[in-house]
Specification:
- By secondary structure, the protein is an alpha/beta fold.
- Helices cover about 35% and strands about 25% of the residues.
- The strands form two sheets. A nine-stranded mixed sheet has the order 5-4-1-8-9-10-11-12-13, with helices on both faces. A four-stranded mixed sheet has the order 3-2-6-7.
- Helix 3 packs parallel to helix 5, helix 6 crosses helix 7 and helix 8 runs antiparallel to helix 9.
- The longest helix is centred in the C-terminal third of the chain and has 18 residues.
- The mean pLDDT is about 95.
């Protein structure tokens, strides 16, 4: 069953202790798609400018990503630039140029409208609500957000949170959204807002998946050669929802736990190279081998 993603496709310039890259393929929809496509066909909705390289379009298209919803608008593509400190302790945003993304109003193609699995990547909550209005009877909707929307668009954010099944956010965002310092308490507050599941991302410390009745902690996969963490959160979401799209009982405890592991594993590939390089190289055999190794590390 296919997965719909609505988000950004961008050109990233990244400086790290292990090298730099200029105008590489990035954006939430790109990272999500290249992870989710390992499990299910992906239908992408995003916007790029007239300067967007054809080679990036070709890369997405040849990996089972349906680009009917990729709009090319007059102007320049969304660009982001950032620098990671020594040891990857902090990340500094150097420049953000929204360009055509600033006036993006997602239109869901008719062929996408019956999508059953939907990922609303980190965009304006008003647009996320509008997208959900355009989709007919989705079975599972996953939402991502950020601190900017928590502080600047709270009413629309609360509305979309009440309409989705799963919310993804990081630890600081969970605390900001609820005013609760303890993450487990914050998660229960969020669950009371409507979602069935909350996933709190903690970067190199893994993630917490919580429902009203149980919780699951997934550590990060130990990567030996960290290159670029950009896009790891969206890649986690792609592996997570992509796996769930293959499951009949996708909200069962077992399915959700397995999905969190696959999300973790897909994110581990992302950070080993710039842009989508490792995600394009990872074969099903390689993915399964890493899942097996992770399982052996965490069994007790």
């Amino acid at each position: 069953m296919s997965v719909l993603v609505v988000g950004s496709v961008a050109l990233d310039t990244v400086y790290t202790p292990n090298g730099n890259v200029v105008d590489s393929l990035g954006g939430s929809a790109s990272f999500f798609s290249m992870a989710a496509r390992h499990f299910a066909p992906v239908q992408l909705v995003a916007v790029v400018g007239e300067d967007f390289p054809q080679e990036h379009i070709d890369l997405l298209g040849k990996h089972e990503v349906n680009l009917e919803g990729l709009e090319k608008a007059p102007g320049e593509t969304f660009r982001w630039s950032g620098r990671y400190s020594e040891g990857y302790v902090t990340r500094e945003t150097l420049d953000t140029q929204l360009n055509v993304f600033a006036s993006f109003h997602p239109k869901i193609p008719a062929t996408y409208a019956d999508s059953k699995f939907v990922f609303l990547a980190n965009i304006d909550p008003t647009l996320q609500n509008d997208v959900l209005d355009q989709v007919k009877d989705p079975q599972l909707v996953v939402l991502d957000t950020m601190n900017f929307w928590i502080s600047g668009a709270r009413a629309e954010l609360d509305r979309i949170i009440s309409r989705v099944d799963i919310l993804l956010l990081n630890d600081e965002e969970a605390q900001q959204l609820t005013g609760k310092a303890q993450l487990s308490t914050a998660a229960q507050e969020i669950l009371a807002m409507g979602p069935k599941v909350v996933i709190i991302k903690k970067g190199e410390h893994g993630s917490m998946l919580l429902t009203k009745d149980w919780a699951f902690l997934a550590s990060a996969y130990p990567v030996e050669n960290l290159i670029d963490p950009t896009g790891a959160g969206d890649t986690f979401a792609g592996g997570f929802l992509g796996y769930l799209a293959t499951q009949k009982d996708f909200l069962s405890r077992e399915s959700l736990r397995q999905a969190a592991v696959y999300g973790t594993i897909m994110a581990s590939f992302t950070v080993e190279a710039f842009s989508l390089e490792r995600l394009t190289q990872a074969t099903p055999t390689v993915v399964d081998a890493r899942v097996k190794a992770f399982r052996e590390m965490t069994e007790f």
